Here is the input.
Amino acid sequence: MDYEAIIGLEVHTQLLTKSKIFCSCSTQFGAKPNQHTCPICLGMPGVLPVLNRDVVEFTIRTALATNCRIAPSNRFARKNYFYPDLPKGYQISQYELPLAMDGYIEIGSNETKKRIGITRIHMEEDAGKLIHGENLGHPDSSYVDFNRTGVPLMEIVSEPDIRAPEEAREYLLKLKAILEYIEVCDCNMEEGNLRCDANISVRPEGRREFGVKAELKNMNSFKNVQRALEYEIKRQVQTLEKGEEIVQETRLWDVNSERTISMRSKEEAHDYRYFPEPDLVPTVISEDWIEDVRSKLPELPDAKKERFVREYGIPEYDAGVLTSSRSLADYYEACVRLFPNPKIISNWVMGDILRELKDDERGISECPITPGHLTGMLRMIEDGRISGKIAKIVFEEMYRSGKMPDEVVKEKGLVQISDEGELLIFVDRVIEENPDMVEAYQKGKTKLFGYFIGEVMKASKGKANPALVNKFLKDRLDCNV
Here is the structure.
């Protein structure tokens, strides 16, 4: 029997506000444990929360960027559960009246475009962090750091429209790009600023009813999300084919064993005993506020991608890669302004630059080759001062040292040889040293021409002007045919 996966994602994003959602404590990452706390975020008796306006505005911004309907009035609720890192014994979240609903994100290319619905976007506060004693030399103890308690979160819940792990990864990458473009989250998964849980079930193809779902947690990268979903699909299918039942539960992804492990039975909404937060009034959002936020939105990834194709004449695939992050798109456009040959720029950025950055696990903002470095080198190729082969050497040295291209060329003596007399010395030497190859070429094996070019370039250590080498070789080799 063939089975179909039904996947929905819940993404928690930490918002880029300077202070927490209900108090003035700092949200800065990396402070000593329990330094960024106060009676409000520690849940002391008699304190009252005050809503951070920036949290609401950031959520409105996200709602507009993901095509959501914004509720004119939304309300906070208490979500009751008891974890050691939740000082109040409840979390202030939203339940029945979230800020935004009924949105969507589109994934895929123009030919394979698919719309993934967004059920809701709501605001809530984060919990603290448990630090287990084995990391501190006390294996029988655990400690609690409340710095993260009260940090503002936005939860983005998708519809169960995703049908494959690859689609889930593509959805997350698209959502990450949007959040970075609108500057509401830095999406640093290592610091926990972007977290994803997945709800997944399988059903026989053709059946309308959903199967019993499992919730997957502890996936700290998009690659792990994809792997966890792939494993869980196989596990659920195998369970059903054995005639056994799927149990609704929460499962953890174990990175080392690359399998999901049962954590606990899944709670239902009524287990949290939601009720309206009595210390906060409903939040009213006016149309004027929404339009003011809309007017400040930057160009979003889809619009930028379409513009790149239209304005720069590059393929849709190139435009998709280059607009996958705002900083990468900005880098590309800065290069094009300096050297208006969009496709050549695209090739170098997508090839050499992204390859080096991936190997070093760096982002484009950390790239030692600035737009000035790259375009300066490309201008040297265009002017005939260096060849494409020499440019690879120059690029590697620029990336390693941060030096400008003309400085690298001067230091290493890489200026391209274009002098006719000097080039003819290399050409004549190669011809004299390969009489059999010359004879074969002149008898019709013209594909050997590439061999001669290669030998001349080798003899000149890559410095010979390829266009002139081509011309001089052709003159010499064809003169006696």
Remarks:
- The mean pLDDT is 92.
- The radius of gyration is 30 Å.
- The CA atoms of residues 33 and 145 lie 5 Å apart.
- DSSP finds 15 helices and 16 strands in the chain.
